[in-house]
Design a protein that fits this description.
Order of helices and strands: EEEEEEEEEEEEEEEEEEEEEE
Strand content: over 45%
InterPro entries: F-box-assoc_dom_typ3, F-box-assoc_interact_dom, SCF_F-box_component
Pfam families: FBA_3 (PF08268)
Shape: globular
Number of strands: 22
Protein name: F-box associated beta-propeller type 3 domain-containing protein
Radius of gyration: 18 Å
Strand order of the largest sheet: 3-4-5-6
Largest sheet: 4 strands, antiparallel
Structural class: mainly beta
Length: 274
């Protein structure tokens, strides 16, 4: 879905035959369909793709795939976090271009209860919101060191939701029925958050972050009727997005994506602007 000038437009990447979209990175898309094969990494523009080996099979609601570029090693990595029938968590990682999944020590028991969504990637780590609500921390795994840790959330009231804010992690807190507070994670190791802005715009109850259409515009979704809004940080203005008839943001989860000509074979400092 593209959002431009207050209107939404849906464009098909024509990838449904390959499987479901799990994550995206630098214009590459990670697809998963464990019934047929392992995950697939594809560039929707060039149609170049590679099939990864099949990892541990789990139900969609009991797993999460992350996809990121490692600036330390110059390779793309796929992380697969999954929950077994006990239920304990397992984790495995594979480099794109390799065919061997490596086992990683997963998060401790009880640290995460919410699964099914792709993690947000920023500050050299994957980040998961661990629970549907009442979160006091986020769970992060370093892209390079592959170690899990807890990152304490800022001490404020309200429900938290995480969203990718163009190469950084943004947290939106429902502080009141007409108030949303936006925080930015500045320092991963120190769990340091910066307060960005307070949004006061009519009834914001049941609004959750949907993504960012630019560095200055936050996209919000109202769960009650699935309508979308943009909030402009510079002008402090909230506007409803004119929805295309084919646009259904309520279906499944969403991941940020932009078209590019990048290939996972080019392993030199791929930092792309959206």
């Amino acid at each position: 879905m593209e959002i431009k000038d207050g209107k939404s437009m849906v464009r098909s990447l024509k990838l449904s035959s390959y499987g479901e979209i799990r994550a995206a990175c630098n214009g590459l898309v990670l697809l998963g369909n464990s019934r047929i094969c392992g995950p697939i990494v594809i560039n929707p523009v060039t149609r170049e793709y590679t099939v990864l080996s099949r990892g541990t099979i789990a139900l969609p609601q009991d797993e999460s795939y992350g996809f990121a570029f490692s600036y330390g090693t110059g390779v793309y990595k796929v992380v697969h976090l999954f929950r077994d029938h006990l239920p304990y968590f397992g984790c495995e990682v594979v480099e794109v271009g390799s065919h061997t999944w490596g086992s990683v020590d997963g998060p401790s028991f009880g640290l995460i209860s919410q699964m099914g969504k792709a993690p947000i990637v920023s500050l050299g780590a994957f980040h998961w919101m661990p629970h549907i609500e009442n979160n006091e921390y986020i769970v992060s795994m370093g892209i390079d060191d592959e170690k899990f840790r807890e990152i304490q959330l800022p001490k404020t009231s309200g429900r938290y939701d995480g969203v990718d804010m163009v190469d950084c992690l943004s947290i939106v807190s429902q502080a009141d029925y007409n108030q949303l507070d936006v925080w930015i994670l500045e320092d991963l190791d120190a769990s340091k958050w910066i307060f960005k802005q307070r949004i006061i715009a009519g009834l914001t109850l049941c609004m959750v972050p949907f993504g960012y259409s630019s560095r200055t515009k936050l996209v919000l979704k109202r769960d009650i009727n699935q309508t979308l809004f943009t909030y402009d940080f510079e002008h402090r203005e909230m506007k409803e997005i004119e929805m295309n008839e084919d646009c259904s943001p309520c279906l499944g989860s969403n991941v940020p994506h932009f078209n590019s000509l990048v290939s996972w074979k080019n392993r030199v400092g791929q930092r792309l602007e959206r």
